[in-house]
Design a protein that fits this description.
Radius of gyration: 20 Å
Distance between the termini: 31 Å
Oligomer: single chain
CATH topology of one domain: Topoisomerase I, Chain A, domain 4
CATH architecture of one domain: Orthogonal Bundle
Number of helices: 16
CATH class of one domain: Mainly Alpha
CATH superfamily of one domain: ATP synthase (C/AC39) subunit, domain 3
Length: 336
Amino acid sequence: MKITDKTKYAYVVTIVRAMESRMLNSGDVERMIEAKNAQEAYRVLNDLDYAEFLGDIENIEDFQVVINAGLKEVKDVLDQNTPKPEILDILWLRYDFHNLKVLLKAQIQEKGLQDVEHMLMPYGKYEYADLENLLNSPSVFLDSVEEKLVEAIKTASAIFEKEEDPTLIDVTFDKAYFEAVQELINGLQSEFLSTHQAMAIDVANIRTYLRCLALDEESLFAELFIKDGGLALNMFTGSMEEFGEKMQATKYGNIIDLGIKGYKETTSFLELEKAADSMLVDQLKEARYISLGIEPLFAFFWIKENNAQVIRTIMVNKLNNIAPVEIRKKVRKLYQ
């Protein structure tokens, strides 16, 4: 599916560039963080591209509905205006794998769709009911993507049955997603997308390896390792400290140091997640210099996701009356 005529994407790129002008900026972030309460922080969204979805400004607990509507609008705009919109499956399939993961966990816990519907994300390629059918009838699938989804169900179920650790379900579905979209990315022959994919895979492998070490399950890593990144499997050896020292020669040395330090202080990998996100956000800036083609479309949606994540973090903390100085520590880097 190599893109041979990038000029066909001129119209949708023009739409995207126009929508970028109303994205979240650092000034908006500061206004939200410094707002005296959650209601005042919520009002900042009136000045952004979420304004038409706000509805009753007093109902601030529904902020996630507003965020979802903003992302769904972008998805619809891209789907409706992109020549060969199937290339965008690279974006939407991540949500299908996420949603199927949520449904599998619900099944394991003997919960129904209604119990976890608030955790599902409406930006995937497949309807929730279709994913439930794949979960309940794994022998019935129609294409290679659905086959990957079914393989993820079987692998995650087997690992969970053995280890009884739900985080291993997460990393199993992450691996399945990356493998499912790798072929699509290879076919597009885009250096920007290939670089982003390789970095995202490296970050996922780093995160998984450190989690395996924290769980004293290093032996599981080889099975969970995702190929096609820049880091080879044989680089993932040793204790956290030994691994961190070895990785100093790579571009990931700093984020690994931050992740290990954060874990030792809090038993959480939040600092690793924040640092990794910052690295991936910085890579998206390369799309600014690509005037035609598919790259600005992917970058725009990923930037919109970044905005949504920042808003979500601020609003959750505002609703819990967390001080601004503490909120700043939790907010991830904003693309700008």
